[in-house]
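User: Some background: our group keeps a shared notebook of sequences we're curious about, and every so often someone picks one and asks for a predicted structure to add to the entry. Today it's my turn. The entry only has the sequence so far, pasted here. Could you supply the structure so I can complete it?
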Amino acid sequence: MAKPFQLRLLTPYQSLFEGDVDAVIVPGEHGEFGVLAMHTKFVTTLEPGVLRYVKDGQTVRFAVSGGFAEVHQSDVTVLADSMERPQDIDTARARESRDRAQKELEKRSSMEPRQVHRWEDRLARAENRLKLAK
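Assistant: Of course. Here's the predicted structure to add to the notebook entry:
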């Protein structure tokens, strides 16, 4: 059995979870990474993806849009731009956001690179939310 460690899931607006978990899998900038107790310390940025934690044999999932994760030997803190449970995702709104981003990206040749990046980020967040809501 895995040794529990402290996990904190925070957004600018709320604390979604604070408690002991057995493991956490986080969508980092270089791909997903898993953490158990006594992990090596590090900090990384997050990409849109699914964060999962395991507690008492149960897996809980969240859609994460980006942010940072700070890993210590006895705790992990995730500071996300936004984070949602699957049951809280408004799929109609996520589809509208995806469709709008796709439509805007069709005009990418007339956009500045910064605008393209912003619409690509919106598309990635919307697709991530829709994937998790299924």
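Suggested note for the entry: Residues 5-86 form a domain with the ATP Synthase; domain 1 fold (CATH 2.60.15.10). The CA atoms of residues 63 and 96 lie 17 Å apart.
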